[in-house]
Design brief:
Elements (H helix, E strand, L loop, with lengths): L2 H29 L2 H27 L14 H29 L6 H22 L5 H30 L4 H28 L9 H9 L6 E11 L2 E9 L5 H16 L3 E9 L15
Parallel strand pairs: 2-3
Antiparallel strand pairs: 1-2
Length: 292
């Protein structure tokens, strides 16, 4: 999925999500449903999340400069961290409202609740469909949130049917609490992934021992050490390492380097700095298995 198509999908998602946010606030106020109002807060967060994601994509296109040699790739990670933090605040608000509703139940118009949630289900399913499949951390997080919103809308539909036939409104604050749990789960997932990148941990999904073994199996490579592997952003990995070889001809070393770089591409390592040595570093004679 190219950037132009992603941007177009994001703009569509923002318009639809904001439109439903307004509908859900109105529907929640008219019906008196906490689950609708709680989900409206989640939808508003989605609007902010999608807007920040779109802005991050545009900013990331800016060319590197003398003072910003890697450009603005980390902007999307900062945006993701902000989104995760915002989700925690929203979940706290939902829990508080649910507790108050347990103490002071309010009447709920189940018909308005049903039709508002049904509109939300259609909007969320469509937005989730157009955002699916991306490797970008912000778009993946947006997809996750919209998908959980779709589940929440479906749950609200079931709750409205229950209230219509039984008249028992206790299900509404219970559902509000369940929505808050989904919000927290989303928040911790985003915060974990963004912190892993900000702290420059080994990218998730890459087995470093296997990577080392692959490089060592390349003809001409006698050893590899001083390895550093980290994520610049959600879909751009960087690596530097010292390569020990007995080959001294520069033309042959360049061939080895090309083979190593090609092998790294399968793990999405697009930037690599490889320093070749004909004599291993004193500190480390051979690569030891590294813990993840």
């Amino acid at each position: 999925m190219d950037d132009k198509l992603i941007e177009r999908y994001l703009k569509t998602a923002i318009i639809l999500t904001f439109g439903y946010f307004v509908v859900e606030v109105i529907g929640g106020l008219i019906s008196g449903s906490l689950s609708l109002l709680g989900d409206a807060g989640h939808m508003f967060r989605d609007v902010i999340s999608l807007s920040i994601t779109l802005s991050a994509l545009k900013i990331a296109k800016k060319l590197p400069s003398k003072t910003k040699t890697f450009g603005y790739h980390r902007v999307e990670i900062l945006a993701a961290f902000f989104n995760g933090s915002l989700l925690i605040v929203i979940s706290g608000w939902i829990f508080r409202e649910a507790f108050q509703r347990f103490q002071n139940p309010v009447p709920i118009d189940s018909t308005v609740m049903f039709f508002t949630a049904f509109i939300g289900l259609v909007v969320n399913v469509y937005v989730a469909f157009i955002l699916r499949g991306s490797q970008d951390i912000n778009i993946r997080s947006a997809f996750l949130h919209v998908f959980t919103d779709a589940l929440a809308s479906f749950a609200v539909i079931l709750a409205s049917i229950w209230i219509f036939f039984t008249g028992r409104t206790i299900i509404d604050p219970i559902l509000g609490g369940v929505i808050a749990i989904f919000v927290l789960f989303s928040a911790f997932t985003i915060l974990r992934d963004s912190l892993n990148i900000l702290l420059e941990f080994t990218p998730k999904g890459i087995d470093l021992d296997e990577l080392v073994e692959t490089i060592e199996n390349i003809e001409g490579v006698e050893g590899i050490h001083n390895i550093h592997l980290w994520s610049l952003c959600s879909n751009l990995y960087v690596m530097d390492a010292h390569i020990f070889t007995n080959i001294s001809a520069m033309s042959d070393i360049e061939k080895i380097k090309a083979k190593i770089k090609k092998s790294l591409e399968k793990d999405n390592i697009k930037h690599s700095t490889l320093e070749f040595e004909c004599k291993e570093c004193v500190q480390k004679k051979k690569v030891e298995k590294m813990e993840h």
